[in-house]
Amino acid sequence: MSDNHPKTKQTKAAAAEDLLRHLQPLESGRGVLDALVEMIEAANLQVGDRLPPEVELARRLNVGRSTIREALKAWQGMGIVVRNKGAGTTLAAEISTSSIRIPLTLKVEAESLLRTHAVRRPLEVEAVRIATRLATDQQRKVITARMAELIAVYEANEDWRPADARFHSAIYEASGNPLFQQLISQIHGAFHDIYKTPFGTPHLGQASIPLHRPLAEAITAGDVDTAARLSAEISDIVEQEVLEVMKGQKRD
Which of 89, 119, 187, 231: disulfide with 128, CB 3.0–4.6 Å? Predict the structure, then answer.
């Protein structure tokens, strides 16, 4: 009997629910996702298999249904599951421990971030191109100011992430197209709603911060090609850091 046979899927779903009984009660959305990863791997759920109902997950894990809903919503945004009203939640991406040298939860995080990053990268580059062409003098001043703020916070060894968000927001605004900011914010938020600090470190992408100065300078100078190249390089650095985590070479 194949894994796609209805009876096989029902058996897997029942096994997944049974495994929930052995998981400890949780207090956070991140803990819920860790528990779900453990359940999926132990039950050998495959792409297309259905997860237990939200109400059952909430009861077994001793959390509110809203916590389950937000966790699954984050996973949906990362392309891990598909949620259909009335049809439940099904697995949309493979979750397997085969051939990995890092914990399964880190592997899921890394793969999810790479998927969202692959969509975000071309949007970021195009927003930079348009902003470089269309930014007003005032918008260029704001971009420069936001860059100076970011570099100052970074050099002070403080949390630079809010300043980084403000810098990129200034670029999106200068593009004149609010859809860039909306789409990128949704993609970014889908991951960080649950994973506040990817891989347990708040510094993912920190190596790219020095490139933000020449990026701002290229934008204010109207140098479209240089600005686009630097934007792509910043994205490449982040992607490389994620790949290093997946290879078990980098953990802060």
Answer: 231
Q: Could you tell me how many residues make up the chain?
A: 252
Query: Which residue is listed with tokens 């062409």?
Result: 133
Tokens at residue 134, please?
């269309």
pLDDT tens digits for range 107-131: 666 677 777 778 788 988 999 999 9
Determine the Cα–Cα distance for residues 70 and 92; give it in Å rounded to an integer: 17
DSSP string, 179-231: HHHHHHHHHHHHHHTT-SSGGG-TTTTGGGGGGHHHHHHHHHHT-HHHHHHHH
Query: Closest Cα to residue 174, out of 205, 147, 207?
Result: 147
User: Who's near 92: CB < 8 A, 6+ residues apart?
Assistant: 47, 79, 80, 81, 82
Q: Which two tokens stand for residue 69?
A: 């809903």
